[in-house]
Amino acid sequence: xxxxxxxxxxxxxxxxxxxxxxxxxxxxxxxxxxxxxxxxxxxxxxxxxxxxxxxxxxxxxxxxxxxxxxxxxxxxxxxxxxxxxxxxxxxxxxxxxxxxxxxxxxxxxxxxxxxxxxxxxxxxxxxxxxxxxxxxxxxxxxxxxxxxxxxxxxxxxxxxxxxxxxxxxxxxxxxxxxxxxxxxxxxxxxxxxxxxxxxxxxxxxxxxxxxxxxxxxxxxxxxxxxxxxxxxxxxxxxxxxxxxxxxxxxxxxxxxxxxxxxxxxxxxxxxxxxxxxxxxxxxxxxxxxxxxxxxxxxxxxxxxxxxxxxxxxxx
Length: 315
What we know:
Blueprint: E1 4-8, E2 26-34, E3 37-44, E4 52-58, H1 73-81, E5 85-89, H2 99-116, E6 122-132, H3 134-145, E7 152-156, H4 165-168, H5 172-175, H6 182-187, H7 204-213, H8 216-221, E8 248-253, H9 261-273, E9 278-283, H10 299-314
């Protein structure tokens, strides 16, 4: 019988915040053509000729904003130092592209790793998925939507149920911010599909409006939880946990004001029910994005456990 282990991090560990003098070398590939849009990924690989186990990394941003360069430099460097290749992907963003299209992008990036990766020194039999926030949600979806299944999943402050009240109703935390009008929100986005936002983040106004109005699901998934709850099943990790779900590491601060800590608690409970090997790492008083810097409380210790987890399942 497999056991759940919940780890509480109580003391900060401080490491140097100095960044490497040069960025790690990377190769950029187009993994998919979506109409006129090239969907790209960046491949970072340690030196040497032997095939490397792979981390498929997925950025966050509420599925509305963000890009593949958002991987934290201090974490990227430690993945590489530990011997992993990292594949960081872009995907189409909402509301211009709805959730089914976004998930198809992630699945096609997964296929690229398995069909093309061996040409680029990747060990396609040892692939894990890691993501943050909405990227953590997408990470969890690969556990039941992708074949072959990932060897391991690591979800930083992700979520398993998008149709719950936290996304489906006006959010008290975001209601404290100045109200965004629908006109302002619509002006921040467009009609043409895009992947990867750069520069000043005007699209946050759209996200803020969605949270203030409880409209994230309608705008991103194109579904209304009040009347179409059953239609969310193909997009919900919480509704698709089973005994063959990949080993999973969940990391979440219990003071997160963006993604409720309870989302990881619920995934922890469901994975325990199915006897899936997993861990929940709780950061006491940890905010959303608790790992933004290595010297942030709990960040370095939590990331060390990520590397231990990956070594266990990827080698």
